[in-house]
Every structure is written in C-alpha cells, then in structure tokens.
C-alpha cells in the first residue's frame, strides 16, 4: 500500500552523540551521501540530513542530527535531543578516552529524552586496527550490560555504516508498529 495515499508518514529523529572527532559527521556523510572527508571542519549550518529508507514497503524518513561541534564544550542543548527516537552513541576504537565518555553520553541522553530511544553503541574507525585501544569484546559486553545494539564501523572504508543506521531505524519502526 502507498502510505502517502493512506496519510501515513514516518519521520524518525535520530541523534549522533559522542566526543569530538570520533567521526560523527563522517558517519552521517557516508550514510547520506557516500562521502568521506579527511579534514572535516566543525559542521556549520547543517543541523540534520534526511534520508529516505524503505521498511516493509513503507517509506520512512530518517532525520539524522549532527552536532555543530558543541560537544567540544559539553554544551549539547536540550533542543538537540528533543523528539529523538533513536541515537548512535559513538566512540573511536583508537582512543580509549572516547569509550570512557560513553557512560556520560548515555546519562545525558536518558535525562534529555522522556520517550524510549533506540540506541546503538558505535565503535568507529575500525580501519585503525593497528592502533586499537578498545577491543571488540569490551565494546560488545558494555553494550550488552547497557542494553544497546553494538557495531564497529568505519566511515573511512564504509564498513557497517549503512547497517548501523538501518538497525536503529528498523528498531524504531518495530517499536511503533
Ligand atoms: P566528529 O567531530 O565526531 O564529527 O568527527 P569527524 O567526522 O569530524 O571526524 C574527525 C576526524 O576523524 C576527521 O579527521 C575524519 O577524517 C576522521 N575519521 C572519521 N571517521 C573515520 C574512520 O572511520 N576512520 C578513520 N581512520 N578516520 C576517521
Ligand atoms: Mg562533527
């Protein structure tokens, strides 16, 4: 059936969170435009990108929000989280400190959102195997403890980027239908 004709519309707000330079903006540009930028500047002007995905024959619009670099100052605002139904919580597998920040990001997420949020823990930069500081097992068991989906990705070589977003979108869809 045609959901536009049926008057149904699915618009899911998904937020990207995690420390500065873990690769949030590149995950989004890889997902939305299949692009990677080796020298990303702080995002200016673009608040979110909308990507259309088909699930069970239905058109779902994923509105994915990226920070404008506010995370550097720990100043991500409540407006950023408002209405979010999904989140990719990102760390960099080659920088242990970014993994240690995840607890704080999860706390901020849960205090800022009152509805259930589909959450995926993302260990990005898995192409940097030679300088890895967080093992896959560690990421996986932390995610299990916290009840999160888990995936290691590379925005650089595109490993699992599409899949990570799609799992979150599918989970949101399952939660509401
Ligand atoms: P953000 O601050 O979290 O938005 O991070 P950016 O997307 O701006 O990326 C920060 C830096 O990490 C940039 O130099 C990117 O080119 C680099 N980067 C992002 N993703 C990857 C990845 O998957 N692998 C590698 N090797 N570098 C990445
Ligand atoms: Mg960014």
Short account of what is shown:
The protein has 177 residues and is an alpha/beta fold. The protein contains six helices and six strands, in the order E-H-E-E-H-E-H-H-E-H-E-H. The chain has helices at 24-33, 78-81, 96-100, 102-112, 136-146, 161-176, and strands at residues 10-17, 48-55, 58-65, 86-92, 118-124, 149-152.
Structural class: alpha/beta
- Calculate Rg over CA atoms: 16 Å
What global shape is seen?
globular
User: Ions, cofactors, ligands: which are bound?
Assistant: guanosine-5'-diphosphate, magnesium ion
Largest sheet: 6 strands, mixed
> Got a strand count?
6
Termini separation comes to 15 Å
Runs in which pLDDT lies below 50 for 5 or more consecutive residues are none
Spatial order of strands in the largest sheet: 2-3-1-4-5-6
Task: Write up what this structure looks like.
By secondary structure, the protein is an alpha/beta fold. The protein has helices spanning 24-33, 78-81, 96-100, 102-112, 136-146, 161-176, and strands spanning 10-17, 48-55, 58-65, 86-92, 118-124, 149-152. Strands 2-3-1-4-5-6 form a 6-stranded mixed sheet, with helices on both faces. β5 (118-124), α5 (136-146) and β6 form a beta-alpha-beta unit. It is globular. The chain starts with 9 loop residues before the first strand and ends with a helix. The mean pLDDT is 91. The site of magnesium ion has 6 residues, from α1. The site of guanosine-5'-diphosphate (GDP) has 18 residues, from α1.
What attributes does this structure have?
binds magnesium ion; 6 strands; binds guanosine-5'-diphosphate; alpha/beta; 6 helices; six-stranded mixed sheet; 177 residues; 24% strand; globular
